[in-house]
Amino acid sequence: LxxxxxxxxxxxxxxxxxxxxxxxxxxxxxxxxxxxxxxxxHVAQKGSLVNADYLRFDFSHFAKVSDEEIAKxxxxxxxxxxxxxxxxxxxxxxxxxxAMGAMALFGEKYGEFVRVVTFGKDFSVEFCGGTHVSxxxxxxxxxxxxxxxxxxxxxxxxxxxGDRALTYLQQLDNQVNQLAASLKAxxxxxAQRIAQLQEHAR
Length: 202
Known about the structure:
5 helices
């Protein structure tokens, strides 16, 4: 801390970090809505972490989310990104927000007025005070990295969006190409080549 804590200070926003955080935060809202679409309306947020590098979302659900369900959830989020839905942010009376169907963390305390973030009035409407993109197209890309259980009846999804998702897929593509080359196969024939090697090893 400076010696004089009352001295003037200059605050500066890290623009790159803020944009990436907004991308992951908006992707979290789309993920929440997609989870409810695929798994059911019993899904409710039980915790989350959003930063410039990734997002983590905990939610109520009674079983492991299958690979097929993960694929559907990813597809819905990326479809909403491609639709480039304008993000509408309004401050309104809490009772008015609840009446219009806005979702809230009801374990939290809210004042008379709340901030409501909407991604298409029929898709995602939530109480939220965080930073967001102005339209879903700015998210660019969404990729789920993992799904796991963290407590009884609570599941966790970790995911990446935007530039982080693109970099991840590019790295994954490079790894597949390198592996295929080392096995003298094409990427499309990689699974068959590995199966042949496993058969010979028996």
